[in-house]
Amino acid sequence: MGAGRTVTLEYGTIAGAQRGWAKISGTTVNNDLVWMDWTTDGGSSWLQCGPFAVDRGPGTSKTSAAKKTMDVSGYQFRACGYLKNAGQTKCTSPWW
C-alpha cells in the first residue's frame, strides 16, 4: 500500500472450514482501515465486510472478519485498505 503498510488476503482453517480474511500490518496508525470484498460476477459488483479500524496504536495489525471460502461456488475475494494519513485506498489484485 505504501507508507510502510501492507494489506494482504489470508486464509486458514477455522472451525473445520477454510476461511479468508483481510489483514493490514506494518507501520500502521490508528484509524487505518481494512476490509474484505467478495464477488460472484468477476468484480462487477461485490459485498464488503468491514471496514475495521486499527485501534491499538501505531504498528499494530488488524484483520477483517473471516468468510468461508470453500464450497461457495463462484465466489472470489480481495483485501482492501485505507491509509488515514495518505487518504488513499488500495485493494489486492487480481481477485482470488
TrEMBL record:
It comes from the Bacteria. This is Uncharacterized protein.
